[in-house]
Give the backbone structure.
Amino acid sequence: MYSFNYRKAASLADASSALVRDSDAKVLAGGQSMIAALKLRLARPTEVIDLGAVADLRYIRVEGSAVVIGAMTTHASVAASTEVRKAIPALAALAGDIGDRQVRNMGTIGGSVANNDPAADYPAACLGLGATIVTTQRKIAADEFFLGMYETALQPGELITAVSFPIAKRAAYMKFKNPASRFALVGVFVGDTPSGVRVAVTGASAGVFRVSDMEKALTAKFAADSVTSIKVPADDLNADLHAQADYRAHLITVMAGRAVRKALGENVSAA
């Protein structure tokens, strides 16, 4: 990896000011993406700002009709949280199926959302539940936050402090995993939320996206057979050595149907 300066931020304000001073600096949250990028020389920051000591960003709490999770909360903590399991069990299940045990105990929700990997799980939960991303400067609706592959609405010096998830009437996430990385070849999050039914897809394209035809069909009738005949065009979907675009299109329909059945309390296998 390239040489860089290392700073252990004492506070959120310390990290923010360091980012403003140096546009080539990068933030280290759980490190599950950043460390790999550094090792492969895909990233060359002048300074790495470690948020590990900022304890104020680690929390989970229910605030009214939402579950609010601090940015430095690990996937394992979300999966094990009594509050999350009770309020949004689909979110706890999603967190418990990210990567492997090491990744879940190091990776953070804020790091995952800010990185916006096109095959990551949390972006699907954010979009599928209509979450709000809270930053040091503002609150951003999930529909406006994820802009494309590894691209978000975050501005220079702006850091995620928390993610607020509305408590859904029912929700579920199903993904077809890459057996090695456990990233989603296709993952579909279905949420019957206070703002309506939402269907979010990850792993299939350059970034997470919603499927409006499925949302309309599920609004009329929340049942698996409402989506099983809906096909997503393969034109803009990913094609690689793991799966061709038409196969990913097929998986979207299959995973959506399974997510609906799971949301309705049925026993569903991901295989």
User: Anything to note?
Assistant: Residues 116 and 150 are 5 Å apart (CA to CA). The mean pLDDT is 94. The two ends are 38 Å apart (CA to CA). The domain at 170-263 is CATH 3.30.390.50 (Enolase-like; domain 1).
